[in-house]
Each structure stands twice: as C-alpha cells, then as structure tokens.
Amino acid sequence: MLQKLTIKNYAIIDHLEVDFSGGLNIITGETGAGKSILMGALSLILGERADPGVLFDKTGKCVVEGMFKVKKAQVADFFRQHELDLEDILIIRREISAAGKSRAFVNDTPVNLGQLGDLSNYLVDLHQQFDTLDLEKSDFQRAVIDALVNRPEQLQQYQQQWQRYSQVQKELKQLQDQRDNANKELDYNKFLLDEMEEAAFTENEIEQLDAELQVLTHAEEIKNTLTRVCYQLKEDEQPILQQLKQLQSALQGLAGFQQELPALAERLQSSYVELQDIADEVERINDGVQYDGARIELVNERLATGYRLLKKHGVQTTAELLQLKADLELRVESALNLDDQLLQLEKELAALQQSLQQMADAITAQRRQQAAPFEKKVNALLAQVGMPNARLKVDIVQGALQPFGQDNIEFLFDANKSGQFAAIRKVASGGELSRLMLCIKSLVAQSVALPTLIFDEIDTGISGEAARQVGMILRDLAGAHQIICITHQPQIAGKANAHYFVYKEARSGKVTTGVRLLTEEERINAIAQMLSGEKPTAAALENAREMVK
C-alpha cells in the first residue's frame, strides 16, 4: 500500500507530505484547490511522462516520492527480472529538472519509465475521471472476465502456444513465398544445371585442353626441334655425350699429376650423367608428340563448349564454372526439398491449432461460467448505487483463434429495463459509466491481488442515496484494499477511515496547495459544508455527525 506521498515543487505545490491509512482515504476540497494535482503528481511515480512546465519554482527541480509497503512475493518477479534490490519498504522517486530532464529511481537505483510503468501495475490501480472510457473497450471487458476466472497460468500457457502458432504461420508464409519464387526459377536453373552436367567438365579441364591444343597444333615444329637435340646429344658423328665421356677420361688419366683434376673429372662425369638424362627425356617426349587431326578437332569442340559456358556465366576458369554448377545443384535441391519442409510445417501448424482450439474451448467454458454470476452481482450493485432499472449483460461470441482465446466479449447495457441491450459506448451516460466502473472494479478487486485502488472523482453524476451506496461499496472494498478516493460527495466522505482536506493558501506572495488530515470534528464540519455551504446549519452539522458516526 502507499504509506507516504511527498511532493516538492510541482504545479501549485511547494512542499507537502501525506501519510495515508491502509483503509479508505478520502480527499476533499474546493474545486481548483489542487486535489487532482495530487493525482497528477502520483502518476509521475507510476510512469507517466513529465512536463517541465509543471514546476512551481522554475529555478528548482520537482521531486515526487512515494513510499510503499509491499509483500515481497507480490513483486519478486519484477525485481528479479530487472536486478533490483527488494525490501519490505519500496521507495519510488521521480525527479524533473528545470531543463526538462527526468530521472526515476526505485530504492535509489535508476530505472527507465517503461520499468516504472511495469512496476506500477503491481502496486496501484489509478482510476481517473476519463478512465471510464476503458469500460467501452473490448480488451478491458475481456480482461475483467479473465480476472474473475482468475486462471492466469492457463492464459499464459495459451499465449505461449499462440506465439509458437503465429511464428509457424509466419515461417509457413515465408516458405510458401520462397517456394513460389523458387518454382519460377526452378525450370531455368534445371536447364542451366543440365547443360553443365551434359558438358561434364572436370577440375582444370579447360585449362588443360587449352595447353594440349597448343602442343597438337605445333606438333611438327616441336618434333623437329626435339629430334635435332636428341641427334646432337647422342647420334651425331661426334655426339656431345661421347665427347664429354672422352674429356672426362682424359682428365681422370692425369689425376696422379695434379690434385685439382680429379674434382674436375668428377664434375664432367656429373654433367655427362645429367645430359644423358636430358637426352633420354627429350627422346621420350619426342616419341609422344604426334600430329593428330582427329584429336585436334575433338579438343577444339570441347574448348568451344567450355568457352561458351565461361562467357555465358561470366566466369574465367573451370573452377569458377564448377562452383557455379554446385550452387545450381544446391538451388535445385533446395527448391525440390521445400515441399517436404512445407509439409512438416503444415503438420506442426495443424497440431498447434488443434491444441489451441482445445485450450480456447476450455477458456471459453470458464468465461461463460463466470459471466452469469458476474452479471447478477453487477446488477445488484447497480441497484445499490441508484440504478435499479439498469442491467448489464455479457455477450460472448466465439470467433477465430486470437492471442487471448477465441471469444469476442462485449458488455451490453440496458439503462431502463427495456429489454433492449446495446453496447455500453452507445447507450451509457457519463454518470452511468462511472458507477458501472465502480461496480465492476469492486468485483474484480476480489480476484486481483492489487493492494491500492485510487479513484479520482468516481462519483461523477451521482448524489443522495446513490452516493451513500457508492461510499458503502468503497468502504467494503477498503476491508481488503487500500482505497484513495477524491470526492465531492459528503455521503462518500462520511465513510472515510482517514479524511484529507486540500486547500489553497498564500505563502511568500504565491498561492500554494496544502493538505491536512482532519480530526473528527474537522471532518464533521467539512462534510457539513459539503452539505449546506461555507456556513453550515445546525441541521447540516447534525447530519454530518450522523454520517461520520
């Protein structure tokens, strides 16, 4: 619950502190005194965006601080998720500089506005004057019924399944688009692949064929040269090899007379061996060189095919051509495999849809089970708050599967027992919406572990006995929840556990707002003034005393 609210330098508030009780806290005061300003300041620590124009003193900074007493189990998940220190007392602070810079802190640890807003959902339900518009929204109406069902783990399980279902739907659509595009290219890619497979080039084949063609087209010139080399080395009248052998023998014969000659003779022997090997190799190559017209024609045809494919695909080498072939094989294979992948996804989608349908049917059954008693209780409360002829009806229509089930839920309203129900947004007045929202929240609060409910002028459009009944509902709610309520109705103010009066005063030449907790006699006087004016009559005072007692 909210134990203390401290506000500094906000709007027409210089500095004030309010200590709240754990029951029904009523805030009253004249119009314009600053009651709703309190709610504006409170909304800052609940994550609302800040306007630097609200600073009371433009040279200082605005500070709003709320001290909450919390049950650790209630907020433990949030604190664990955001790695914050959790204590029994939770202090939320918001600072706004004159330059418009805003900072937020939870137990002195900086947080962003998104985190602050998420945390506030665990702490406070703030009902302001225009929040009755939420009652007209289908999401709010569904959330009300789900809160009464009070099976959050079931909804969470459904939503997790729905997320997977949506993901598979997306993957299936992408794969179908991919298949459609692949099918458009499949025939052409298969044609290109068939062409390459028919050519059946091997690694470096085009380069090797090009080299072979050079040999074949110059075979006569190569053979003549090799024959001459071989002849001069081995078969001439004075073959080079024979001459080297003779020279080596001559030097070897003088080895005993000159110590350097054996080494030279050995070198000549090595040269002889090397030239002998060269001669043999030249002879071998020469024997292999033959002019082959048929082979030339075959190589030319093969090269023509290779050059055509290289040019067609804009590549330079056999290796690049083979890589392109591998890519085409992968594309064709992928396109052919898409049908298998699609079949698997379609099977998964069907299984997920069946599971979701079963879960949605269970959720629908539970919602329908809660609808009738909810209608009965709301209608009883409507009679209690001065709308005896009003009826609420919950219309649940099954439709397509959605993130929250399959139900389209709408609250229908009949203000005059006419039997003609219509959507709330079409037939309910502002005052009726306000009272209807109170009735609904009073029922929801019994199922939702929300410690603090704040109502900003929930009594719009009511008075007299209806206002007294609203006060009784608020007082009943305060048995299990902290209630903070701004009101103009004395019947509601009379039900307070703690009554705060908001007033204006002049201080240092400026008008500022103050708040004080009223004593019992001050309460009686304030309520009497609400009944009969600034100077209450004895009857008004007596009536006020009876309300308080």
Automatic annotation (TrEMBL):
InterPro entries given in the database record: DNA_recomb/repair_RecN, P-loop_NTPase, RecF/RecN/SMC_N
| Coiled-coil regions listed in the entry | 158-219, 335-369
Q: Which GO molecular function entries does the Swiss-Prot or TrEMBL record give?
A: ATP binding
Question: From which domain of life does this come?
Answer: Bacteria
Alphabetical list of CDD domains matching this protein: ABC_RecN
Under the heading Pfam families, the entry gives: SMC_N
Tell me which GO cellular component terms the UniProt record holds.
bacterial nucleoid
Q: Where is the RecF/RecN/SMC N-terminal domain?
A: 2-505
Q: Does the keyword Cell membrane apply?
A: no
Gene Ontology process terms (BP): DNA recombination; DNA repair; SOS response
Instruction: Cite the entry's keywords alphabetically.
Output: ATP-binding, Coiled coil, DNA damage, DNA repair, Nucleotide-binding
Q: Does the keyword Nucleotide-binding apply?
A: yes
Described function: May be involved in recombinational repair of damaged DNA.
| PANTHER family, per database record | DNA REPAIR PROTEIN RECN (PTHR11059)
Tell me the protein family, please. Answer: Belongs to the RecN family.
- Identification of the protein by name: DNA repair protein RecN
Species for this entry: Chitinophaga japonensis (Flexibacter japonensis)
